[in-house]
TrEMBL record:
Keywords: Signal. Residues 1-21 form the signal peptide. The keyword Signal applies. It comes from the Bacteria. This is DUF1236 domain-containing protein.
Length: 131
C-alpha cells in the first residue's frame, strides 16, 4: 500500500469520526480499527484504532426525558456561581452540589452560573449544558 492510499484512508476515517460518534453504532478503538481495516487494510486499522479511541470517548447525550426533567426542575434558592467555565467533558468543582435525577440514577444535575447542567454523578463530569 502506498503513502497516498494511507493518507486517503486516514482522511476518510477522520472525516467520518463525528458521524460514528453521533450515531454510536461504532465506538471506541475496536470499532475504529474495524472500520479502518475495511477502508485501508492493516495500516487503516492502526489509524482507525487511534481515531476510534478519540471518537469513542465522546460523551453520549442523555435521553430526552432526563433533559426535560432538568429543564423543569425547580431552581435552588441559593445561587451557585463558580469562576471556572462549565465545559462538557470536564468535571464540576467539588463545591457544586449535584442532585440525582430520580428516575434515572445514571444522571444528576446542577444549576451553575445560571446554567442547568447534566452530569455523570460519580465523576461529576458535565454531559450537557442546557441553554
Amino acid at each position: 500500500m502506498n503513502i497516498k492510499a494511507v493518507g486517503i484512508a486516514a482522511g476518510m476515517v477522520l472525516a467520518s469520526t463525528s458521524a460514528f460518534a453521533q450515531s454510536s453504532t461504532v465506538t471506541g478503538a475496536a470499532g475504529g480499527a474495524a472500520t479502518g481495516a475495511i477502508v485501508g487494510g492493516p495500516v487503516g486499522a492502526a489509524v482507525g484504532g487511534i481515531v476510534g479511541g478519540v471518537a469513542g470517548s465522546v460523551i453520549d447525550p442523555p435521553p430526552p426525558k432526563v433533559v426535560t426533567y432538568v429543564e423543569q426542575a425547580p431552581a435552588p434558592t441559593k445561587r451557585v456561581v463558580v469562576k471556572e467555565k462549565v465545559v462538557v467533558g470536564q468535571p464540576l468543582p467539588e463545591t457544586v452540589i449535584v442532585t440525582p435525577v430520580p428516575d434515572d440514577p445514571k444522571y444528576a444535575y446542577a444549576i451553575v452560573n445560571d446554567q442547568r447542567v447534566i452530569v455523570e454523578p460519580s465523576s461529576r463530569t458535565v454531559i450537557q449544558v442546557i441553554p
